[in-house]
Write a structure and sequence with these properties.
Elements lengths: L2 H14 L4 E17 L2 E19 L2 E7 L4 H16 L26 H4 L3 H16 L4 E17 L4 E16 L5 E8 L7 H14 L4 E2 L3 E7 L1 H14 L2 H5 L20 E4 L20 E6 L2 E2 L6 H7 L16 E4 L6 H6 L3 E15 L4 E14 L2 E7 L2 E5 H6 L1 E4 L4 E3 L10 E4 L2 E9 L4
Parallel strand pairs: 7-15, 8-13, 12-19
Antiparallel strand pairs: 1-2, 1-4, 2-3, 4-5, 5-6, 8-20, 9-10, 9-12, 10-11, 13-14, 14-15, 14-16, 16-20, 17-20, 18-19
């Protein structure tokens, strides 16, 4: 059964069972992964998943589910159970109807590449190129993952929204070790094969590993910091994620009550752009069927919007931003506006400070205030007079989201699309330059 036929079946059954409203997404993904360790490929895997996601509403009561068994009888039985559940639920005071369609969706270029969709042995060549470059640059042992595949979706709603799309994706993460403590990381990603640069990702991982040899402890305190692109992606993923109205309403955001206020340096502007050419998160419509668009999240340091679906928008007395998520509104592509300095010129701004390539295991002590700590890794260096002097160990990043935002002094001019496994707040990709922030706090980890 084709995806559209599957969505039509589920929508017809839901309305036939008495639902006032329904939305259905039929989604198929074919995902492949090449894992490598100790300089060689260790595992290759393929997943072929077909899932049905269903939203049902009746008398302002709402239920959502996902189905892996897409046999017609299984779908009917599951929907009957859902309608039985709706019957005993209480109405939602914040219920909002689905958007009224139909809608027109303009195509987005660069989202599908047959070369990625059909890739097989070429994946091994890409991995091998990254390994070789990492070793040439100074790594001794190289590991990581290359994940790629194709996905397609069909959306139907009872209010006339109809959308279909397909997209390819590929993400390579390379980690190199020069010894037990000296590590580096490089990444490359995109929706098109020509967007990938495995040689640069491998070279960066190997170079940072080599530069990290014989790291020395550094005293805790406050330092001016240049954040590498993997770290920037983690940080701006958090920032954009915290502007989701779901997290604002849940008390899990430091942007509560700050709309229209200065929350960051005037140098910083962040956009959500679901229509970015070749963006990993690009899509013409959200999960409610609304056409997507580019929007400012933070502009000139001012918080411009929360990200909304229909229900959170009603709760806030505004309109949806086309970021549904039926439950959690989310950013699609997080775009950080670059500055006007080269990477080298940005480093030259630092007389005495740190370069932090990546941050991981981000844990919040207080979400509403923005207090957090994180492990720094994969290339942490002391900067002296604009140069990376030596590897640093023994420190943990311990600061505040709002403080870092307000402490941004400069950004580099080269922005790259980044996606890797430490981005935990749901952004498919962050397009980011490097940034320099002043007087960022670091502590010594405790056991």
């Amino acid at each position: 059964m084709e995806l559209r036929e599957l969505a039509q079946l589920a929508l017809k059954e839901a309305l036939g069972l008495g639902a006032d409203e329904a939305a259905v997404i039929a989604h198929r993904s074919i995902s492949r992964q090449v894992r490598f360790a100790n300089n060689e490929v260790t595992i290759t895997k393929t997943w072929d998943d077909l899932n049905l996601y269903v939203l049902l509403a009746k008398e302002a009561k709402l239920v959502i589910t996902s189905l892996a068994n897409i046999e017609p009888d299984a779908i009917r039985n599951a929907l009957k159970d859902l309608m039985g559940l709706v019957a005993v639920m209480k109405p939602r005071p914040d219920y909002a109807p689905l958007p009224e369609g139909p809608f027109e969706y303009k195509p987005i270029s660069g989202l599908y590449d047959e070369k990625i969709a059909q890739m097989s042995d070429e994946a091994i060549d890409i991995v091998q190129e990254a390994i070789n470059k990492a070793l040439e640059a100074g790594g001794k042992r190289v590991a990581g993952t290359f994940a790629f595949g194709v996905e397609e979706a069909s959306l139907l709603t009872s209010r006339g929204a109809e959308g279909e799309g397909r997209k390819t994706r590929a993400t390579l993460v390379v980690r190199a070790l020069a010894d037990g403590e000296a590590a580096g990381m490089g990444t490359t990603c995109g929706t098109r094969l020509r967007d990938l640069d495995p040689a640069s990702a491998g070279e960066e991982a190997g170079r940072f590993a080599r530069l990290s040899l014989n790291p020395e402890p550094l005293k805790p305190g406050r330092y001016d910091v240049v954040f590498g692109r993997p770290a920037c992606a983690v940080f701006f993923d958090i920032v954009a994620g915290m502007t989701s109205a779901f997290y604002v309403d849940s008390g899990l955001s430091c942007f509560i009550g700050k709309l229209g206020q200065q929350v960051a340096s005037e140098l910083l502007s962040i956009y959500d752009d679901a229509r970015l050419e070749a963006g990993l998160g690009s899509r013409p419509f959200d999960d409610e069927g609304l056409p997507t668009a580019r929007k400012a999240i933070i502009e000139g340091g001012v918080l411009k919007t929360y990200l909304h679906n229909s229900i959170t928008a009603k709760r806030h007395g505004t309109s949806s931003t086309a970021n549904a998520g039926w439950i959690v509104p989310q950013p699609w592509n997080v775009i950080v506006r670059p500055g006007d300095l080269s990477d080298e010129e940005l480093l030259a701004e630092v007389r005495h400070g740190l370069f932090v390539n990546n941050i991981t295991y981000v844990r919040f002590q207080d979400y509403a205030k923005g207090d957090f700590s994180a492990v720094i890794r994969d290339g942490v260096f002391l900067i002296e007079d604009g140069e990376l002097k030596k590897g640093v160990k023994g420190l943990r990043l311990s600061d505040n989201v709002l403080n870092i935002l307000k402490s941004i002094k400069a950004l580099s001019r080269e922005a790259r699309q980044v996606s890797h496994w430490w981005m935990e707040w749901g952004s498919p990709a962050v397009v980011t330059p490097l940034f320099l922030a002043e007087r960022i706090g670091f502590t010594v980890p405790t056991k």
